[in-house]
Structures are given as structure tokens and as C-alpha cells.
Amino acid sequence: MENKGNLLKEAFLKQVRPLDFLILVLVIGAGVFCFFKTSSLFSGDTVQVKAGQDTYEFSLNQNGDYAVSGELGDTVIHIENGKVKITDSPCQNKTCINQGYGTTLICLPNHVIVSVVQKESEFDAVVQ
């Protein structure tokens, strides 16, 4: 049994070349980079809600439940600890509720779009 394991290990090592190892490292590195890049997308300070023709803005720093009127009725968004999710909606399939916390949430039947945005500042950068 031990010989069979060693033979498999040797056969695998003969098939793996240095370039394969380099490609594997690059793919893992790209995955880690994408993870950290997308996690920085959560760095907004305002929740912008578009419901039909109306636009609403709420602070991510203000915990609470907010109702906005869509085409079918009120969609309730919940803001807690800098995160936002949809907790209630009049749509039939409730897919928007199952999305959980996120930076862009959509209730398509009710025509409600929730986005986390960074309010524009008059400065592009601050240098000390």
C-alpha cells in the first residue's frame, strides 16, 4: 500500500513542471488581490436608493430601518454597523431579501436599487 502511494506521488511530481507552479502562484495571487480589491468596495458612507423616479440617501453611520416606495409598494432597507440589506419587499419571489448584506441590492419587480456610494468630496486627495 505504501509503495502505491509513493508511486502516485512520484508520478504527480513528474507531471508538475516549474511553469505549472508559477501559474498556480499567479492565479492564487490574483485571487487574493481581487478579494482585497472587492472588500474595499464596501468603503462607502452613504446608501443611495433609487425607487422609480425618486432617489433617497441615507447615512451608513445611522443604524435603522427605512421604507421607500416602489412600484408595488414599500421596500424596507436595514442599515446596521455600516452595512445595508433589504428586509422586506412586496415582490413575490423575495430574491432581494435573500441577497443579504451587499453594496448593490436590487428588487427588480418593485423597481428599487440600493447602492453603497462614497459621497464626493471637494478634494481628490489630502497631502500632509
Describe the structure in your own words.
With 128 residues, the chain is α+β, with helices and mostly antiparallel strands. Helix content is 31%, strand content 32%. The strands form two sheets. A four-stranded antiparallel β-sheet has the order 2-1-7-6. Strand 6 and strand 7 (112-117) form a beta hairpin. It starts with a helix and ends in an 11-residue tail after the last strand. The mean pLDDT is 83.
Shape: elongated
- N-to-C order of helices and strands: HHEEEEEHEE
Strand order of the largest sheet: 2-1-7-6
Rg calc: 24 Å
Main beta sheet strand tally, sense and closure: 4 strands, antiparallel
Q: Based on DSSP secondary structure assignment, what is the total number of beta strands?
A: 7
Question: With helices defined by DSSP (H or I, 4 residues minimum), what is the helix count?
Answer: 3
- What is the residue-averaged pLDDT? 83
Q: Helicity, in percent?
A: 25-40%
Q: What percentage of amino acids are in beta strands? A: 25-35%
Oligomer: single chain
The span between the termini is 66 Å
Coarse structural class: alpha+beta
Which regions contain 5 or more consecutive residues with pLDDT less than 50? none
